Q: What sequence folds into this?
C-alpha cells in the first residue's frame, strides 16, 4: 500500500509540474524552434565559461524536446528542467520589463529563449 501511495504522490507532482510549466511556457514547440534560429535569440543570455551557447538558448532546445513528448514519457531530468523553466519565467516576469520598446528588448528575448513571450496573448 505504501508503494501505491508513493506512486500516486509522484503522479501528482508530475501533473503539478506539467501544469505549472504549461502555464509558464506560452510558445509552441514550433514557435520556439523558429525563434531559437534567430540572431536575436542567440545574442542574449549568460554563457558559461567557454560555451558558445547561452544557458537560455540551451534551455529553449530542451523545452522544444519536452513539448514534443507525451507527459507519460517525461523523464526525471525533463521534470527537473520544467521546474527550472517555470522558476526562471516567474522570476524574470517579476522583474518587469523595460518601460520602452518591450518588443525589441533583451528582457523579452531572454524570456522567449525560455519559452515565454510576454507579448503573446493567451487564447
A:
Amino acid at each position: 500500500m505504501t508503494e501505491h501511495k508513493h506512486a500516486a504522490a509522484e503522479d501528482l507532482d508530475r501533473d503539478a509540474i506539467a501544469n505549472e510549466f504549461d502555464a509558464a511556457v506560452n510558445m509552441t514547440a514550433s514557435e520556439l524552434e523558429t525563434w531559437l534560429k534567430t540572431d536575436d535569440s542567440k545574442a542574449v543570455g549568460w554563457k558559461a565559461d567557454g560555451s558558445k551557447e547561452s544557458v537560455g538558448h540551451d534551455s529553449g532546445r530542451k523545452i522544444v524536446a519536452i513539448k514534443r513528448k507525451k507527459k507519460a514519457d517525461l523523464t526525471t531530468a525533463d521534470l527537473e528542467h520544467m521546474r527550472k523553466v517555470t522558476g526562471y519565467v516567474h522570476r524574470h516576469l517579476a522583474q518587469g520589463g523595460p518601460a520602452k520598446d518591450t518588443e525589441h528588448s533583451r528582457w523579452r528575448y531572454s524570456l522567449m529563449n525560455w519559452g515565454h513571450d510576454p507579448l503573446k496573448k493567451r487564447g
Observations:
- Helices lie at 2-24, 29-36, 39-43, 55-67, 76-95, 106-113.
